[in-house]
Structure formats: structure tokens, C-alpha cells
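Quick one: C-alpha cells for this chain, please?
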Amino acid sequence: MPQEHANIEFAEQLGVHLRAQFPLLLVDTVEEQRLVDKVAAATEPLSMRCLTWDSVSGFSSVHDSRSMAPATDPLDVLERLRGMSSNSVVVLKDFHTQWENPQVLRATRNYAQRRGEAGPTVIVVGAGATPPPELADSAVILEFPPPSRVELQAVLREVLEGRWVRRELDDGGMDRLIESGRGLTLEQARRVFTKAVVADGVLDHGDIRLVLEEKKAIIATSGALEYLEPDEAAEDVGGLDALKEWLRLRERGFSSSAREFGLPAPKGIALVGLPGTGKSLTAKTIGSLWGVPLLRLDIGAIYSSFMGESEKRARHALKLAETIAPCVVWIDELDKAISTGSNDNGTSTRVVGTLLTWMSEKTAPCFVVATANDISKLPPELLRRGRFDEVFFLDLPTESERREILAVHIRASGRNPDSFDLETVARHTDGLVGAELAQAVHDALIVAFDHNRELTTDDLLACGAQVVPLAVSQRERVASLRAWLAEGRAKPASREAAASPVPPQRVTGAW
């Protein structure tokens, strides 16, 4: 599993850097105690001494819990480090906050450039522990992965010890409970597992929901990610049979059996077409179809006026998505979110670069679904193969697809679609996209309700005739998108191509 592998890789990298006696390592994480435990475990086989420091307690030994002479002044701390054995490791907690002082920054830089002089390996840990430009060539940044499944199991076992709990979860349920904790820090997992146990003394499926709710709240703090729980099913999407079949074939793409068979995890798809053709609805159904979390990434929320902050937010959001994996990452209306102008000091270019790099290099099973209305605003390199498994074009629905879409919305109103002549309605609504057909059904229901009678086919025909479709108001865009499809740049989402051209402008309420 990716998180287990990531933790093993981190331990291996840490061991290499300790043996090489690198002067300065940085770890950006809020899990300082978990990091200290990892460092302590890495030093034992190397017979190295492990110390910690913070601005309140000063230095203390990890292995024997002995306190040392206090040293809270950061300059004094750096001076004390030079007198320590090279066969030591010192974890400095939140020391990066001291670098706002130019003297402390200079002293840190001098220590990092000591070149063979005595002194321990220093690990600076804390939320936001990233190197300033002055330390960029001297500090080594280590990516600290989230807790592994084994660590989450240990925390749950620790919470259950000494408590009387009625367990109503079988082994499969316990596995799902632990899986639901993926992406939480160890303390967050301990808190929510304890809450689940203490609340009613029962461990059941409701506790899985409780953990997921905690995860939602944590994801919301990122500002750019939203955890969605779609209740849409594939049956709620009318038409798009080629796209549905493509998704069905990859339904087990994240399973271990697929890996054993030699199949890589699916990377993602791009959905391009007019507004209202079902792109967003399709994205919402994938999570429920595949049984994995759906995360909506708001690119617009990533942008900041501070230099470098936008890229940092993007990396944080993408890293958070990886901790939830396997998951679906939905990037809605990517063309609107990405500016191609020159008035943002290159921010959009750097954010796009961050996104492109992540899409190409990610190893976590994050399936990306990007939707776009205007392909002319997207950088060409975004849609190339390797980042997406496929690019689908959602055209105007065909007559049979319009009949399916009408049936979906009539069924949603609590009525039997077979009670209406949907073939006639579909034939007379050429050019309407799914959202417009939904609006026509909604308007027809209002008319029927106002007249205190049941909905009729005539109501549907009359309300459908009053809609001015996007296919008319955006005739040029439809033609441009179809020309783009004809060049072989995308795959039709429907097996049956739109049989009719862009419909003509309506005259006096008729076609």
C-alpha cells in the first residue's frame, strides 16, 4: 500500500542521512512527537544519541528522559550544538520560526555549512518548516508521510485497551474503520477513535461514518479541497454510454487484484463539452460507482497575492489528497480557474506547473477528473497522454439520449416515464443539453401544479419549446468543439454521434 511504502522509504532515507551526518534536515509536519519517535527508532541501531529541543524546555534526551542545562536562546542553542558529539541527532521543534531574526538565520547557515566540523545532525521539525532562500542549498527537505495502516491499527488497539466496548464490527468492518482513518494524523486518529468508543460504548458502522465526518472537517481546513458524498448513481446520468462503459471497465482499477494482474491504477480523464452536458454529474457518480472518496479541488481558492504561497497551497492540497487515496480528485471548470493572461506575475503558470508535475509523477492512486467548457483556455500540455488516460468530448445529446435524460428527471419527480410520450418530446427538443431538459421538466411540473392537475406530455412539449438552447446561443463554440473532436483529439462520450447539426434559431416558439 502506498502509505506503508512511503513510511518505509522515509525510514530508509532518514537512516541514510543520519549515517552520512548531514548537518541540517527539515521536516514540515505538525506530528512532531511521531517524528521524534521515528528519529529515535532510527538512531538505536546506529548507536546514536537522540536529543530534542524546544524554546520552553530546552534540551532533553529521548532515550533516557534526562533533562540538560536549559538553553532557550536560539543563538546559544546553535553554539551549544557545536560542542556536541557528531554521533548525535538533535530534533529542534519549531526552530524555523527563529529564522525571522537575521542573526539566527546567519548562525544556522554557518552551522549547515560546517563541512566536517564536529556537531550533530540537526532536524528542524514543525508546521511550515520550509527553508528560506538563504538555506535552500544547505538544508535537506524530508517528506514525512501520514500514518500507515499499521500505526492506525496500533492506535485503535491502544484506545480499546482497558475499556469495555461492545464490538459489532466484523473483521471487514474493522478494516473499513481503519481505512476510514487514512489521512488523519496519529493524534487526530486517536481522538476520533476515542470519541467513537466513549460516545456509546459500541463499535459499529456508525463509527466509520464518524471518522469520515472528522476527515471531512480536516479536509475543509485546506481551503481548496472539499470532501463530497455524492448520492448520484450511473443510472442518474442519461446517455454517455461509451463513457459509462469506460468507467465500468475500470471499476476495480484500485484493487490489489488489479495490481497483482499487472494493471496500473487509472490516472484520470478530462471531460470537455458545453455547460449542462453532464460533465459535473459524471464526475460525481465516479466516486459512488467505484466506492472511493470524492474530493473537489477548487483551483481558484489556491491563488494568493503572496509570492510562492499559491504553489505552496497547491502542493498542500495535492499532498492531502494523496493521504486520502484511493480517491477521485475532481477539478471542475478548469478552464475558468486557470488564467492564461500575463497580469498575475506568472502565478497561474507556476500553479499549472505544480499540477502538471503532480499528475505526471504521482504514485498514489488519485484518479483526476477535470472538466472544461472552453479547451482554448487550457495549456496544450495539460491534455496530453500520460496525465490523463483519456479525453472525452460530451456532445449535444442525441434523440435517444434526450429520451433517457427526460426519463431520469421524470422518475426523480416520483412519476413513471412510461406514462409519457417521451419519444415525441425527445424529437422536439433537438439541441437541448441535459441541464436544459431538466429545467424543461421542472417548468412543466410548475405549470401542472399551478393548474391543479397531473403532469402531461403536452406540458413537457410546451416548456421544452420555450427554452433557448445553448446550442443556438453558442453555435460557434459547438462547431469549434466538434471540429476539435474531428481532429482526433478526444473520444466521443456517446457511441451514437449527434445525428443532427446545430439546430437553427427558433421562430415563434417552434423550431
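Confidence is low (pLDDT under 50) at residues 498-511.
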